[in-house]
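## retry 2 of 3
previous attempt timed out at serialization; input unchanged, resubmitting
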Amino acid sequence: MEFQILSNFIGKCLRKNDIFIPAMILYLIKNNGEGNVSQISRLLYIFDFKHELSHYDTIVRNFSAVMLKEYNIIEEPHEDFYTLKTWPLTEEEIEEITKACIEVSNGFFSHLREREPIRG
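## retry succeeded, writing output
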């Protein structure tokens, strides 16, 4: 049931070409369902590289995390630390969520198909 909530959120609530929320979801599922703002914002900085790192901190805190919390995808943030409510996921569910995030971001993260943790 928890997996379906996350899957539906990606399929129905995210817009095509969005990268920030799928990036946060990908980071969390590739890192055992948890991560902090600096790790996630560094990932965004590496991929987008259009602004200062502090800009991506703001995006994670004030946009991605707020929306994920609003849709009940993450736990209440604690000191900039985020945890997926849908964790743990099976390998098959992780693969399906990864594919959905890549699709909604128009392939922006297509090289992240491996199950290895993302280091930010």
